[in-house]
UniProtKB/TrEMBL annotation, chains A, B:
SMART domains, sorted: FCD, HTH_GNTR
Lineage: Bacteria, Bacillati, Actinomycetota, Actinomycetes, Glycomycetales
Classification via SUPFAM superfamilies: GntR ligand-binding domain-like, Winged helix' DNA-binding domain
Domain of life: Bacteria
Sorted UniProt keywords: DNA-binding, Transcription, Transcription regulation
Protein name stated in the entry: FadR family transcriptional regulator
InterPro entries in the cross-refs: GntR_C, TF_FadR/GntR_C, Tscrpt_reg_HTH_GntR, WH-like_DNA-bd_sf, WH_DNA-bd_sf
Family annotation (Gene3D superfamilies): GntR ligand-binding domain-like, Winged helix-like DNA-binding domain superfamily/Winged helix DNA-binding domain
Record-annotated HTH gntR-type domain positions: 10-77
Pfam families to which the protein is assigned, alphabetical: FCD, GntR
Keyword Nucleotide-binding part of the UniProt annotation: no
Protein source organism: Glycomyces buryatensis
DNA sequence: CCTCCTCGAAAGGTACTATCTTTGCTCGGA
DNA sequence: TCCGAGCAAAGATAGTACCTTTCGAGGAGG
């Protein structure tokens, strides 16, 4: 699961999907633009069937619509399945990283506090001890300014909290959060050294979860994300 | 957009996708079960290419994994793209409506208050007046116990609030919320007559949004969803 | 008991046919 | 002369049949 857990495509049609998906989400192919299977097949050197399968997947993400005689038209952004992990990944890699990061951060602010509260109520003993362990690691790595290692531990921290609550919708967002955190690090939106308050808050969340204090966990996570918001939304 | 806004499939492979997707999400085809393209083609009377396209879409939802020589294996539930509108719809129509409604309601509790606050900050004039209009309609329809009409207005109310904030991730959840509300009504989880408190809270949310009082809107929406929670989670 | 080879089954990929829809041209009427 | 309706042709997708590649399993031999 190297990148946001999207399924590993081993086939020949994967590069087609990847390239065109990226081009659409980046805005390079604007809404209303028309593609043809022949054009795709010729461009990538594949048969029409391969192109068709790729388009079928894109259609299932509501990125394009296929109509007879007309061709394959790119749909407007409002209709995209923006929760599809591939779409999120493409947009984070592409040109509108900014809007995407803003939206996702707002989503995190909404979800993660409640997920932390759920985790405080429902986590297993192993999960409780692991979350404390991770918070300790985070402090150590943060103070040593090991940014990459810090990020990996941070991803595991948030993933664990999203999964421990037992809500599968929250759990499904863990890939999204992982993408956001990796994106922020790659984009240089992380401070060179994590601010001490953030480290304190990670520990506060961990302790509250470990002790089963749901309200405290929720509150600490909310404060933590307020910190994140100021980093991502400089406005 | 009769059902959760999933793209209208006009092709021949759509019934295949629909049937097998439903069977997997319902648990009728358990994780690890192996399908073959030939089997699918024979069962539905279609060619293998059609079956393959349907499987490609299912694969893009992480419901199955296709490996050579082995066949198409059903993946465990934890790996599904549970945010895909089709998956949500299938699960709501199928046997684990209950777990799905619980998860989705928790998600609503997380997201909708913040979305209401965003709407209070960023809605257009037309949206502000429309939301008040809808709250008034809701009171009238609720007191008249017109359940279906009430639901439709309720869907529009929540959809409007999710979209007005300008956050595309929130906006993308409007189909989900629509599905939940419709599912609750069809499932008989709505009271025969909406409780007066709910009507009051809808109006409170609307007024706060119209007046631009973000904190009040958030608070009222939170109370409204607390009401919903008690209805859905009888525990 | 381990290793290697062979066989076969199922997915991957290609070429071809059918069908449907759009578009443009023509003919007739006002 | 202009406008509208209808018909025909073209082109692109939908679907089918067939060949190729790959990898897993089972058996034989060391």
């Amino acid at each position: 699961m190297s990148d946001s857990g999207r399924p590993i495509g081993t086939g020949l049609h994967d590069p087609v999907l990847e390239t065109i998906g990226m081009e659409i989400t980046c805005g390079e192919l604007p809404a209303g633009h028309v593609l043809t299977l022949d054009g795709i097949g010729e461009r990538f050197g594949v048969s029409r069937t391969v192109a068709r399968e790729a388009m079928r997947v894109l259609e299932s993400m509501c990125l394009v619509q296929s109509r007879r005689r007309v061709g394959i038209t790119v749909r407007p952004r409002e209709e995209w399945n923006v929760f599809d992990p591939r779409v999120i990944w493409w947009r984070l890699s592409g040109s509108d990283r900014d809007a995407q990061l803003r939206s996702l951060t707002e989503l995190r602010i909404a979800v993660e506090p409640l997920a932390a509260a759920s985790a405080a109520r429902g986590a297993s003993a192993a999960e409780r001890s692991r979350v404390v362990e991770l918070a300790t690691s985070l402090r150590k790595l943060g103070e040593a300014a090991e940014l990459t290692e810090f990020m990996e531990a941070d991803v595991e921290f948030h993933t664990l909290l999203l999964r421990a609550g037992g809500n599968e919708m929250f759990a499904a967002l863990s890939n999204v959060v992982g993408s956001v955190l990796r994106g922020r690090t790659q984009l240089g939106l992380m401070p060179h050294q994590p601010v001490p308050e953030a480290l304190d808050l990670h520990e506060a969340v961990a302790e509250a979860v470990a002790a089963g204090r749901a309200a405290d966990a929720e509150d600490a996570m909310r404060k933590l994300l307020a910190e994140v918001r100021t980093a991502v939304l400089p406005s």
